[in-house]
Specification:
Blueprint (H helix, E strand, L loop, with lengths): L4 E2 L6 E2 L3 E4 L15 E4 L15 E4 L6 E5 L4 E5 L4 H8 L4 E2 L11 H6 L7 H4 L6 E7 L5 E4 L5 H7 L8 E8 L1 E2 L4 E9 L2 H11 L5 E6 L11 E8 L31 H7 L2 H14 L7 E4 H5 L17 E8 L1 H17 L7 E6 L14 E9 L5 H14 L3 E2 L9 H7 L3 H5 L9 H6 L2
Parallel strand pairs: 3-5, 4-5
Antiparallel strand pairs: 1-2, 6-7, 7-11, 8-12, 9-10, 9-11, 13-15, 13-16, 14-15, 14-18, 17-19, 17-20, 18-19
Helix pairs in contact: 9-10
Length: 448
Amino acid sequence: MKWNIESWGRYTTSTPADVQLVNANWNPVTTEPKAPYLAHGLGRSYGDSCLNNGGTILLTSQMNSIVNFDAKKGIIRAQSGVSIADILSLVVQHGWFVPVTPGTKFVTLGGALANDVHGKNHHIAGSFGCHVRSFELIRSSGERLVCSPGSNSSLFSATIGGMGLTGLITWIEIQLIAIGSAKILMDRKQVSSINEMISALIHADEKAQYTVGWIDTTSGDNKLGRGVMFKGIHATKAEVGEDENTQFMDSQYSANQANSIFSVVPKFGQYFLNAKTIFMFNSAYFQYNSTSDKSYLASIDSFFYPLDKIPKWNRIYGATGMLQYQFVVPMHDGKFIVQSVLKKLRSIRASSFLSVLKVFGDIGSPGMMSFPMPGVTLSLDIPAGIAGLLPTLDFCDEMIAEVGGRIYAAKDSRMRGSVYRKMYPRLEEFCTLIDPQFSSSFWRRVAR
Ligand SMILES: Cc1cc2nc3c(=O)[nH]c(=O)nc-3n(C[C@H](O)[C@H](O)[C@H](O)COP(=O)(O)OP(=O)(O)OC[C@H]3O[C@@H](n4cnc5c(N)ncnc54)[C@H](O)[C@@H]3O)c2cc1C
C-alpha cells in the first residue's frame, strides 16, 4: 500500500514506508521495524517535522483516553492522542482551561508537547512545556520511562520541544488554569506602525492575559506594519452577568468538530489567492477592526480559534501549498528585523494572508530545543511558488540568525541545516538524547 501524508502547509508531502496505529501498549521490540519511526498527531505542523518520508509513521489517534482528571486541583492526565478540543470539552464546564493553547484546538497533547507550543499568553505563562508535570515515553529499546522535572530530567527536557525524536509519548499530565467563565473579555485597537504595535503589545501585558497583533503586510511603505492589536482576559462570572451560584456558563461547550456552513473548495483555492485578493482581504480586515472604545465578550472559539471554523482552510493555497514563516528575534532588534523581512518579501511581491506578531516574555521553558525566547515573533502565511521566494527567505534566515534569533521548526519546510544549527544552542546535547530509531523528514534535512 502506498501512503501519502501531508503536513498543514501542503508544501511537502511524504510517502512513508509504513503507517502503524499505535496504542499505549506499543512494543517496538516485537514489531518488525521499517525504521525510522516518527509519531504523528493531527498533522497541524505546517512543515515536515511531522513527516517521515520512507520511514514508519506511528499514528496516535487511538491513544485518545483521559486517564485521570482532578476537577478540584485542575490536574489532568490524558493519552497523547487526545486533542486540546477534547480537553476543553471536558474541563471548561468545571472552571478550568488549558494553560497554553496554539491558534487551533485541533492539536494533540503529544504534538503540543513535542513542539512546545506557545500561545497569546507567553508573557505570563511561558510555553506549553512549563505546565507539564510528567509524561511517559517509550524508547525503541522497549524501555518505558516516566519523565518529570525530578525524574529522567534530561529526557524530560529533550522531549519538550524535541519534535518527536526522543520516542513515543503515551500519556501527559498537565496543570490547568482556573477560569471564572467560558467567555473572554476582549479589546482591539488599530495601530499605524510596527513600533506602535510592539509598544502596544508590551504595554498591554500588564493588564492582559492574552495579547496578539495582526499586521497588514500589504500596506504602503509609510504604513508598513499597521494592524490591529487584540487583547483578552478570561471574564469573571460577574462580567458575563452571572451570579456566583449559577451554573458555569457554556457548560455545553463542545469543541470536538469544526462546525461551519462553508469550507474551502480546493479546486478554486489557487485562483482565489493572489497578491490582489490578499491586498483586498488585508485592507478590509484592517477597516473592519476599527478601534473599539469598550471591551466586549467573545466566546473561547472566536477569540482563540477563529480559523477552526473553516474546515480545511489550508486548501485555499491550492496544489502548491503555502509556507508559514515564523521567527523570533531579541526585542531590541524586533522593529528593524520585522520591517526588513516585510520589505524583502514586498520586493518579490510576496504578501501574507495572515500575519501575526506576538511578544514573548522571559519565562524560560524546560525544553532544550524550544522555539520561544524573549523578544518579538512574527508569523507569515505565504503562498508557495512565488518566484524568488526561497532565496529571499534564505536571506531573511541569515539576518535573523545574525541577531541571535530563531526559526520555528514546527512551521518550517525549507530552512538550511547550517542556519538551523546556528539557531539552537543546545543542539549537541539534544543529539545525545535522541532515540536512534526515531527520525523525521525535517531532521534528515537540517541535522545532516
Ligand atoms: C491554524 C494553526 C494555528 C497554529 N498556531 C500555533 C500557535 O499559536 N503556536 C504554536 O506554537 N503553534 C501553532 N501551530 C502549530 C501547531 O500547534 C503545532 O505544529 C502542533 O505541534 C501540532 O500538533 P499535532 O497534534 O497536529 O502534531 P503533528 O503536527 O502531527 O506532530 C507534531 C510533532 O509532534 C510529534 N508528536 C506528536 N505526537 C507525539 C507523541 N505521541 N509522541 C512523540 N511525539 C509526538 C510529531 O512527531 C511531530 O514532531 C498552529 C497550527 C495551525 C494549523
